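FAQ

Q: What does a record look like?
A: Structure on top, sequence underneath. For example:
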């Protein structure tokens, strides 16, 4: 026989839903500034500003995908075939953000390398004005997304992009001031390289986190052996097998296990103690536990994955 415990997971997994208004506000603000930066970058010939516009584009696209994922997860109950809903769309959106931002960063690095030989003239006036506006927009977007970034990998992706873009705007401002004051044109590709090198490691970390979830590896902060030993320590449990722990989406850890119990054990007490241990000690809110007689361990059809 088995039991599940998941009455709290909805509140955790729906963390992003609480921040929909903030996402929409950041989306509208950054879309406007992205268009202004792109147009100005082309007119002024600034690679640093183009880099910043590219990063802002990924901000806009990332937030758009985050909103799409949140909208999709709200419809999870409409299709009975989706027994886990559409929570994984959030993770897929985060992975797409990481891939896209990596492509943009690599492009900027390659273009900057070409420009170091003969940096072109840059119109610093419009470049400086738009960079300052971009900085202000990113500060607002950063403040809007920060609360949700602690609860959702999807929002964390958008938050990291805005953080990188905020620092990028500072770099563009510095480059414009250096060029205007000294005529040193290498400041533009140099800042573009700095922006790319800053954001790439953070992007790759986000991508690794998304891939870990997609391959259903155990959460990094949990030791599977520790969970196993704790379940074995539950009174009445003689052995634990077929233990699997994975992450469905941000903040939603899931587990399943077979508990072999001693003859005469109180099954309700065993299930209650096991669920409480998983929830309170490991923050696993959703667990499917199968209880079986100790003598039937070899007959339960366990699969060693």
């Amino acid at each position: 026989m088995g039991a599940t415990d998941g009455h709290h997971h909805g509140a955790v997994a729906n963390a992003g839903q609480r921040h929909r208004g903030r996402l929409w506000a950041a989306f509208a603000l950054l879309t406007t500034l992205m268009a202004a930066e792109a147009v100005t970058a082309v007119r002024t010939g600034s690679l640093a500003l183009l880099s910043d516009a590219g990063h802002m584009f990924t901000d806009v696209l990332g937030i758009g995908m985050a909103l799409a994922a949140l909208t999709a997860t709200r419809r999870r109950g409409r299709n009975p075939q989706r027994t886990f809903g559409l929570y994984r769309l959030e993770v897929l959106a985060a992975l797409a953000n990481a891939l896209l931002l990596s492509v943009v960063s690599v492009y900027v690095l390659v273009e900057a390398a070409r420009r170091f030989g003969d940096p072109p003239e840059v119109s610093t006036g419009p470049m400086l004005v738009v960079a300052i506006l971009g900085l202000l927009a990113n500060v607002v977007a950063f403040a809007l997304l920060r609360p949700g970034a602690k609860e959702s990998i999807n929002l964390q992706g958008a938050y990291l992009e805005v953080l990188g873009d905020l620092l990028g705007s500072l770099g563009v401002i510095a480059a414009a001031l250096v060029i205007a004051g000294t005529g040193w044109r290498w400041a533009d590709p140099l800042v573009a390289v700095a922006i790319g090198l800053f954001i790439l490691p953070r992007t790759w970390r986000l991508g690794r986190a998304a891939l870990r979830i997609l391959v259903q590896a155990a959460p990094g902060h949990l030791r599977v052996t520790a969970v196993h030993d704790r379940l074995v320590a539950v009174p009445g449990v003689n052995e634990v097998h077929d233990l699997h722990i994975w992450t469905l989406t941000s903040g939603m850890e899931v587990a399943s296990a077979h508990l072999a119990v001693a003859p005469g054990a109180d099954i309700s007490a065993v299930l209650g103690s096991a669920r409480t241990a998983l929830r309170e000690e490991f923050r696993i809110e959703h667990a499917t536990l199968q209880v079986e007689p100790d003598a039937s361990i070899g007959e339960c059809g366990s699969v060693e994955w």
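Q: Is there anything notable about this one?
A: Residues 153-182 form the longest helix (30 residues).
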